[in-house]
Amino acid sequence: NGVQAIAELVKQDAPRLALLDWIMPEKDGVEVCREVRRGKDQAYTYLILLSSRESKEDIVAGLESGADDYLTKPFDMDELKARLRTGHRILELEDHLVEARESMRFQATHDLLTSLWNRGVIVELMSHEIMRSRRERSCTALMMCDIDHFKSVNDRYGHAVGDDVLREVARRLHNSVRSYDMVGRYGGEEFLVALNKCDPGSAVSRAENLRMKIGARPIQTPNMPVPVTISIGLALSTEFTECTVEELMHQADMALYAAKAAGRNCVRVARPSGKPVEEQPKETPALMP
What we know:
Layout: H1 2-9, E1 17-21, H2 29-39, E2 46-51, H3 56-64, E3 69-72, H4 77-109, H5 119-136, E4 141-147, H6 150-157, H7 159-175, E5 182-187, E6 190-195, H8 200-215, E7 219-220, E8 225-226, E9 230-236, H9 245-261, E10 267-269, E11 278-279
Parallel strand pairs: 1-2, 2-3, 9-10
Antiparallel strand pairs: 4-6, 4-9, 5-6, 7-8, 10-11
Helix pairs in contact: 1-2, 6-7
């Protein structure tokens, strides 16, 4: 009956194509079409409405209820088969359209080489997170990370190996932070990491752990293992309470510059104006689990 048909057609694993009779117990085919179109947000179901009603008004009413096709009874079996094949073709086109739309959405928000958030998205997400942390009086730790001597990797091993290195560094960064932290590719060999709701006292050790995880073992490429280290500039939202996300990123970038000047493969922390960029202790902290 119509009520059972609705229950089946609004499931997540509902049939992709359905034949509905206009006359059914409890709810007719037109009502079923309306209910399915109103409540269905998963994969599209192609609906063919069968009826002995042949008037123009009935056909229009059936199609406007949400039916994709209308077939009058008695019908020819060959015609029904042809319409079913048409329905399958349309569903295939619908699936291709959904895939293309999802691909375009992904490409608009992600870096295609590393699959991390792209620059525009990660900066926007960080901006929202910093505003939230200030409302809640919590801390966001922003890290600017740079692969050390990456140009030499490209020059020595080639750009294909360089791409492998970028992908693996991105993977290690992503796997080394919590699910609610954020990682994005800022450009070239630079990455942005935001540790949300971060204890200011532990931010430095977390940055050190992140640095150590990247350099813990060489990156395996199809040709050879490539040793890689990163430098990190760290800025805390609690240290720069009036800064925009762009200004906080600038502070992290200045700290990154200091890390490079100190010999690379280290962490430096940005401090408010008038205070020097802070050097970190030489001892090596334990790796994060």
